[in-house]
């Protein structure tokens, strides 16, 4: 499996990916799922991939070496290197997905394998604002907005609550990076098929290049602090909430549960009784 | 959708269920998913259900009114009311699932509907220890152990991390009830198809009856405290963790990320370069 998250803030972009791939629990490997495409001063793009590895690798290869059908207004081919907007670059990525679909989907279907792939793709082209896209296996895509400033691919559920609680467009970049790492840590705790090392990129709006790229392994001191600190403090918070107190008396005490009063509604005490 | 959780502790059992059912987002209803079967002093059993509502309702009806094929050693029919063990009662539940399968599965298949149902079923029969089972749509089942003291059915992922962090067989009953409510709150925050009211049962080991049954709606003061307190304190914990600091200098400072040094590994800067 995979867990990747891309976040678009006013201050910039944050991308985080794990690197575990599995074809069954007895066939686990490390494949990194993030690539940065960059011409400093002109464009920075980050691609995260999830799904069938043979498909995502083919898409990434084709994106670089084959001429796809996307054309600009003059009929000239668009590539990710000459696209004048992130939207056009996302179209190129979508075309690459469709190219692989045309080549592989029928054979995969014969083998009983779904054409399953998805990408988070974001960045900035000179002269345009930053943009962040989620590209589906049909090559279509959606764009992040202020209301939905992040996209996840792969095993998204375990790590979603903290993103929802923290992220807004005004979140500072480093805080969003921390949030992505907490989200990843929760995911890795609950799903063995998501694993280290992690790739993290933090991109500052308007810079058109990034030096904040780091590969995080189990020895990374910051990640170790997040891993132990979050678990321990979460437990402290849990302990700090009062336990419920059961009480039959009608009371306004905020921690008392009125016991038994609803019991008859859902309790069956004889074989003849029925309650659906 | 549904979210239900059953927990088996040394001190007793905790059961919690939501009550939202949906057949598409434009067809949401309230159906309660918990039933308590009880002969005080002899047996207390709690049944939680998830999956296709027509199947789970049929199973619950059949469990009460039809004679199933399960027999004891003397050839007499076993019901949940005369079963001498929770294991036998779980067999009766499994037989009820198979009965509905035989009746409905083929027609459902013609309509393109999976035979999808699952149950958490636990309790205590006089003379035996408490037991907790997870019953699958094939009527087979597994039992909770000290290493895995809880079962979830329905939308389980959002609410799993807190259960994993808190629950052990030694967890006190009221703390486990709080944990189940936090787990439910996280699930409801992230999945609109899980909703109030909730049914909560806390059963004390050996009592063979329970008075701690409560239906929790949006006005319940304890649930409101959990809902606002958990979210707010989680945010405080998040804020209390330091943000990462980026630094090129090799340093042992625990919060510094060594930036850029791994950049070349995953960065492509010319169209000719390749990196899968």
Structural description of this entry:
The structure is a homodimer of 276-residue chains. The longest helix of chain A has 25 residues. Chain A is an alpha+beta fold. Chain A is built from six helices and 15 strands. Chain A has a single domain, classed as Aminohydrolase, N-terminal nucleophile (Ntn) domain (Glutamine Phosphoribosylpyrophosphate, subunit 1, domain 1, 4-Layer Sandwich). Helix content of chain A is 32%, strand content 27%. In chain A, helix 1 crosses helix 2 and helix 3 packs antiparallel against helix 4. Chain A has a five-stranded antiparallel beta sheet with strand order 10-1-2-11-12, with helices on one face. In chain A, strands 5-6-7-8-9 form a five-stranded antiparallel beta sheet. Chain A is globular. At the A-B interface, strand 5, helix 1, helix 3, helix 4 and strand 11 of A face strand 5, helix 1, helix 3, helix 4 and strand 11 of B. Strand 5 of chain A pairs parallel with strand 15 of chain B, so a sheet runs across the interface.
């Amino acid at each position: 499996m995979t867990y990747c998250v891309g976040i678009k803030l006013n201050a910039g972009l944050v991308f985080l990916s794990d690197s575990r791939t599995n074809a069954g629990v007895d066939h686990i490997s490390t494949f990194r799922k993030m690539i940065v495409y960059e011409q400093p001063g002109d464009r920075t793009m980050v691609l995260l991939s999830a799904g069938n590895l043979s498909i995502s690798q083919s898409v990434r290869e084709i994106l670089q070496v084959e001429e796809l059908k996307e054309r600009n207004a003059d009929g000239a081919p668009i590539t990710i290197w000459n696209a004048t907007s992130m939207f056009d670059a996302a179209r190129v990525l979508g075309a690459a997905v469709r190219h692989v679909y045309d080549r592989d989907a029928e054979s995969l279907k014969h083998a009983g394998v779904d054409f399953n792939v998805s990408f988070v793709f974001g960045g900035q082209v000179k002269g345009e604002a930053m943009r962040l896209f989620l590209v589906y296996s049909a090559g279509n895509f959606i764009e992040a907005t202020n209301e939905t400033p992040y996209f996840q691919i792969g095993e998204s559920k375990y790590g979603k609550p903290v993103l929802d609680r923290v992220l807004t467009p005004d979140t500072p970049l480093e805080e969003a990076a921390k949030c992505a790492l907490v989200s990843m840590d929760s995911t890795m705790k609950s799903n063995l098929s998501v694993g280290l090392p992690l790739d993290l990129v933090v991109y500052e709006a308007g810079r058109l290049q990034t030096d904040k790229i780091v590969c995080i392994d189990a020895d990374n001191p910051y990640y170790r602090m997040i891993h132990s600190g979050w678990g321990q403090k979460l437990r402290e918070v849990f302990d700090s909430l009062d336990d419920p107190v059961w009480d039959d008396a009608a009371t306004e005490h905020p921690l008392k549960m009125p016991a038994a009063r609803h019991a008859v509604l859902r309790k069956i005490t004889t074989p003849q009784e029925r309650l659906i």
